[in-house]
Specification:
The complex is a heterodimer.
Chain A (H helix, E strand, L loop, with lengths): L11 H6 L3 H21 L8 H20 L2 H25 L1 E3 L2 E7 L2 E3 L1 H18 L9 H19 L4 H17 L4 H20 L5 H11 L10 H13 L10 H4 L11 H34 L3 H25 L17 H19 L13
Helix pairs in contact in A: 2-3, 2-12, 3-14, 4-5, 5-6, 5-7, 5-13, 5-14, 6-7, 7-13, 10-12, 12-13, 12-14, 13-14
Chain B lengths: L4 H38 L1 H12 E6 L6 E2 L5 E13 L7 H9 L6 H13 L6 E4 L4 H9 L7 E10 L7 H4 L1 E3 L3 H6 L3 H7 L6 E4 H5 L1 H5 L3 E7 L5 E10 L7 E3 L3 H12 L15 E7 L5 E7 L5 H4 L4 H9 L8 H4 L9 H10 L8 E3 L2 E4 L2 E4 L7 E3 L1 H7 L2 H10 L2 H10 L21 H7 L11 H8 L9 H13 L8 E4 L2 E2 L15 H13 L16 E7 L26 E8 L6 E7 L5 H19 L30
Parallel strand pairs in B: 2-10
Antiparallel strand pairs in B: 1-8, 2-3, 3-4, 3-5, 6-7, 8-9, 10-17, 11-12, 11-21, 13-16, 14-15, 17-18, 19-20, 20-21
Helix pairs in contact in B: 11-23, 15-17, 15-18, 16-22, 17-20
Classes of the chains: A mainly alpha, B alpha+beta.
Subcellular location (chain B): Cell membrane; Membrane
Keywords (chain B): Carboxypeptidase, Cell inner membrane, Cell membrane, Cell shape, Cell wall biogenesis/degradation, Hydrolase, Membrane, Peptidoglycan synthesis, Protease, Transmembrane, Transmembrane helix
GO molecular function (chain B): penicillin binding; peptidoglycan L,D-transpeptidase activity; serine-type D-Ala-D-Ala carboxypeptidase activity
Chain lengths: 381, 656
């Protein structure tokens, strides 16, 4: 039986047979919800969003399978180069990046626009998993063992923050820290880290490192009465749209608030709003359930993986995924500041799709090679 | 298989941490779910209401203003198609460029351009801004034709107040205009304020448009529209809201045809000015139906065009209108108070009879009357000889009335004057009515409130009042009312409105003027003699068609002007226009069965008999010709008779 075969001996067909179809199914359903919603956003049209979303998802699915059937050893080997590659792309942004709404986040690759910060999230998880895979456990909480991951997290976080893209910077940092936490960082350091993080935010605010508009959105979140029509306009309109959806929603393509343009960026960051308005509580809880289900499937994979690299990688990807979902939904419902985080696989956007599906490709690889526990390493580096 | 010794430990820790993190994630998912439940279930009603507020807007629909009709149903004020042009900033490439191109078709003033540019700054880019209205068809067509070159410029057709008769009835109708800040403050409620703010809404600013604004305005409608986030209307929601109701129409007593004719007559040259004297027309006429009090004609020359006000009057035109010595913005029939001159002798004559002086009493006129050592001169230097009352009116002998004045009390004369309609306002609804001055002891005491020494009434002053000079003033409307009361003996009061909406207002039945109205016979006979028996207004006779009775008046504008070298009193013919006397004429006709009474005042016309009388004759002829009540007894239109007034149509008689 194929399942009994040692991972090393798996042929292409064997690997394909071992694909986790439940994970693929969940991701496909989530992306389909994205297609339906994007069709509605475009006022009942496949263009410009829905059709391209389908194409992107199909391409990303191929990518997922491709990454998934690639031996985990390869990913372990490529982890650091991938990280530095992503870091290099991030460095390129200020040099050749395109300014969009006051922030440089994109670089053009041919006719595509690439958002290196999205790729970085996966690359960072990959690199940290690689790091802890080769690190003796007793050194995880040792100060010297702490410095390399902090540098690995700090460099991309800082670069993204300077773009400026506060939301993604926070996400990058959080995905990195979550891998550190999973690796077994002592709670003492977790507490110290939390305090240091808080101090850093305060300092950033006081020294003016955080841009005015970001600060406005954060203060508006902390006290929505400050400027009801200003910085918190998005969140308020979004709450109205979702709230007016009720239990069963206004129906497909019937979302008046979203369709009439009371909401900006409907096809990207605020797509959950129109979805919640049109499909109501039932639809929204269903989507959240799909996301959580995806997370549980990934967690199952992580806990069954015999390699530490695979575990950390899979759980790191799964947590990044979940953080996207929680921050995005929290943001559109007024629970979190408006920081510009897309809803994975539903929001329109190619890089996020590729990064997320690529990430799940790594999860898939971990699944296929879950029994492979003897990844050869030469220490942490 | 080789298991590294530390791997078991870190796997255990990983699993524990993973479960903790998963628990945390589950909790956060639960939080998001709870938030969804709060928004979509518990607070759903609130958010649904907010969503409706977002997307539905109540819009006020401006009602059509009620029409104003004349006596025969001719339109005096209506709502006409108005060609406008608006600018939608977001559709222009450049506002300045589009405006510049538009100006090749429609010239704009500096102020208009500034207003448009200001509105562009103030409003959202999709809100249309009115650039100009009242375009000609050629301009409108040109804009349509050149639409491609005019991005963001949009021609529109709307309704605007229009006065087809232009100036003829301007003072009666008044005009409309956009609500000012003061109007907004005075608005009784928010709904009204909202209506006032509508771009197409105008409210009555003057005249009957102002007085009857409530009825004319109509009921505002409403409609519900779906709007997007920028306030742009997406669609109108059917069956929500109600249609506006057009305002009630207002029927005037004015006959616009006669009104136009009167204005034309007032402007005619009657040869009263020598050719080398620069003269102008500043005159007024009022004709009253003595049976009903209906004001058939109320003309003020020169007139202004109320259409200029509808679209906002240009500042330069407003300045010119205000600065003109002819006072085109003054409604002279009601606001112009003139010394009535000899027309007031009718009042003095009645007062004398009431005081017991028989009409047959004769006084001798030698051309001058000495009173308390001062000479009071008759207008006829040689004197009139011995006269009774009727002839005194016919020849307008001043000395006769000086004699009466010495026997009369000023308070009594004032009382008669008031009973015959002077010294009071009639609240016609057009505003600006002057009360005029009827001097008596109380008036003088009040006038010299601060200087008690001057408060005493001197008998010499009564002499001036008796011939309508001195402090006496009256408006043409009051003089016409006086003529109507003299003609009928009824206390006629004038009115301008016959119908309000569907309601026809019945003419009031007038009481008799208090006092012995038999006294009027002599006055009426005297007025008949003035016109028909070679009196002072013999040239104003309408014979053989009608017997019109009248009284001339000439009132001094300034005290006698003497030649600076010889000291001789200069006659009117030798004075510049603005120094000449005002010419007045009051009349009624037909003499034996009075129907119409009129007053004509020609400012600086020189003399009542040369200037005002002939005009009154030509006005009254038209009035009488048109009166259907005269077809049997005072029939004019005999077969083969040539039309007396070219251009004046009589076809509208059928409306009676």
């Amino acid at each position: 039986m194929a399942l009994a075969l040692p991972d090393r001996r798996l042929g292409i067909r064997g690997r394909l047979m071992r694909l986790n179809w439940l994970l693929i199914a969940l991701l496909t359903v989530i992306a389909s919800i994205g297609v339906v919603t994007l069709y509605s956003v475009a006022d009942g049209s496949w263009s410009p969003y829905a059709s391209r979303h389908v194409i992107r998802f199909c391409a990303a699915l191929v990518l997922l399978v491709g990454v998934g059937i690639t031996p985990l050893r390869f990913w372990l080997w490529i982890a650091y180069p991938a990280y530095f590659g992503a870091l290099a792309l991030l460095l390129l942004v200020p040099l050749i990046g395109e300014t969009n709404m006051g922030a440089e986040r994109w670089i053009a690759v041919g006719s595509f626009q690439l958002q290196p910060s999205e790729l970085m999230k996966v690359a960072l998880v990959l690199a940290l998993a690689r790091y802890y895979h080769g690190l003796e456990f007793k050194r995880v909480s040792h100060p010297f063992g702490l410095i390399p991951p902090l540098l690995m997290i700090g460099a991309p976080t800082g670069l993204v923050f300077l773009q400026p893209d506060l939301g993604t910077a926070i996400l990058v940092a959080l995905s990195g820290f979550s891998v550190m936490l999973l690796a077994g960082l002592s709670w003492r350091w977790v507490v110290v880290g939390a305090i240091a993080g808080f101090a850093a935010v305060v300092t950033a605010i006081q020294t003016g490192l955080i841009q005015a508009y970001q600060w406005g959105r954060i203060t508006a979140f902390l006290d929505p009465t400050v400027d009801p029509l200003g910085a918190n306009y998005h969140a308020n309109q979004s709450k109205i749209a979702i709230g007016s959806g009720g239990i069963d929603g206004k129906g497909f393509m019937e979302g008046t608030q979203s369709q009439l343009g009371f909401l900006p960026e409907m096809h990207t960051d605020f797509i959950f709003t129109i979805y919640g308005e049109e499909f109501g509580l039932i639809g929204a809880l269903g989507l959240l359930g799909l996301y959580f289900g995806t997370f549980l499937v990934a967690m199952n994979i992580a806990m069954r993986a015999k390699s530490h690299f695979g575990r950390l990688l899979t759980m790191g990807i799964a947590l990044t995924f979940v953080m996207y979902v929680l921050i995005n939904t929290g943001m559109v419902m007024g629970l979190a500041p408006v920081v510009g985080v897309p809803l994975p696989l539903v929001s329109y956007g190619g890089t996020v799709m590729i990064a997320m599906m690529g990430g799940f490709g790594l999860v898939m690889s971990t699944w296929i090679y879950r029994n492979q526990d003897t990844l050869r390493t030469q220490g942490a580096f | 298989m080789r298991v590294e010794p530390f791997d078991t430990q870190r796997a255990m820790i990983f699993n524990r941490r993973a479960l903790i993190v998963a628990g945390g994630a589950f909790g956060l998912f639960g939080g998001v779910g709870a938030r969804l439940y709060h928004l979509q279930v518990r607070a759903h009603d609130d958010y649904a209401a907010l969503a409706d507020d977002n997307q539905f807007n109540q819009r006020v629909v401006v009602p059509l203003r009620g029409e104003i009709l004349d006596r025969y149903g001719h339109l005096v004020a209506t709502n006409a198609q108005d060609f406008r042009v608006v600018l939608i900033p977001e559709r222009t490439g450049s506002v300045a460029q589009s405006l510049a191109r538009l100006e090749q078709i429609v010239p704009l003033t500096e102020a208009q351009r500034a207003r448009v540019l200001r509105d562009v700054q103030r409003q959202t880019a999709f809100t249309p801004i009115q650039v100009a209205q009242g375009l000609t068809w050629d301009q409108f067509a040109a804009i349509n034709y050149r639409a491609d070159e005019l991005p963001g410029i949009q021609p529109e057709v709307g309704m605007a107040r229009s006065y087809p008769d232009a100036g003829a009835v301007a003072f009666v109708t008044g005009y409309v205009g956009s609500a000012t800040d003061r109007d907004l403050e005075a608005a009784p409620d928010e709904e009204t304020k909202l209506l006032y703010r509508q771009p197409g809404f105008k409210l009555g600013k003057a005249g009957l448009e102002h007085t009857f604004d409530d009825g004319l305005r109509g009921e505002q409608g409403s409609m519900t529209v779906q709007v997007n986030a920028h306030g742009r209307v997406i669609e109108e929601i059917a069956n929500k809201g109600h249609a506006p109701a057009q305002g009630e129409s207002l029927g005037l007593t004015i006959d616009t045809e006669l009104q136009r004719h009167t204005l034309e007559v007032l402007g005619r040259d009657y040869g009263e000015y020598p050719e080398d004297v620069e003269h102008h027309t500043s005159a007024s006429a009022v004709v009253i139906d003595a049976w009903t009090g209906d004001v058939v004609v109320m003309a003020s020359a020169p007139a202004y065009d109320p259409n200029d006000f509808t679209s906002g009057i240009p500042a330069s035109l407003w300045r010119d209108l205000n600065a003109s010595p002819l006072k085109p913005l003054l409604n002279k029939p009601v606001a112009g108070a003139y010394p009535p001159g000899s027309t007031f002798k009718t009042i003095t004559a009645i007062a004398a009879q009431e005081a017991g002086i028989a009409p047959s009493t004769r006084f001798h006129c030698s051309g001058v009357f000495n009173f308390a050592g001062n000479p009071f001169r008759c207008w006829k230097r040689g004197g009139h000889g011995s006269l009774a009352m009727e002839d005194s009116l016919k020849h307008s002998c001043d000395v006769y009335y000086f004699n009466l004045a010495t026997k009369l009390d000023i308070d009594h004369i004032a009382d008669v004057a008031r009973r015959y309609g002077l010294g009071q306002t009639y609240d016609l609804g057009i505003g600006a009515e002057a009360k005029g001055t009827i001097p008596d002891r109380a008036w003088k005491a009040a006038y010299y409130r601060s200087t008690p020494a001057n408060q005493k009434w001197f008998a010499g002053e009564t002499l001036s009042v008796a011939i309508g000079q001195g402090a006496v003033t009256a408006t043409p409307l009051q003089l016409a009312v006086m003529a109507a009361r003299l003609a009928t003996g009824n206390a006629v009061t004038p009115r301008l409105v016959r119908t309000e909406g569907e309601e026809v207002i019945a003419p009031p039945s007038f009481a008799r003027v208090s006092g012995d109205t038999d006294d009027l016979d002599v006055v009426r006979a005297g007025m008949n003699a003035v016109v028909n028996e070679w009196g002072t207004a013999a040239r104003s006779s309408l014979q053989p068609d009608w017997m019109m009775a009248g009284k001339t008046g000439t009132s001094q504008v300034r005290s006698l002007t003497r030649d600076p070298v010889t000291g001789r009193v200069l006659s009117n013919d030798e004075l510049p226009w603005s120094h000449r006397d005002h010419a007045l004429f009051v009349c009624f006709a037909p003499y034996d069965s009075p129907r119409y009474a009129a007053a004509v005042v020609v400012e600086h016309g020189g003399s009542g008999s040369k200037s005002a009388g002939p005009r009154a004759r030509d006005i009254m002829r038209a009035v009488l010709e048109k009166d259907p009540g005269n077809t049997d007894r005072h029939r004019l239109w005999r077969p083969g008779m040539k039309p007396l007034r070219p251009g004046l149509q009589t076809a509208s008689l059928g409306a009676f």
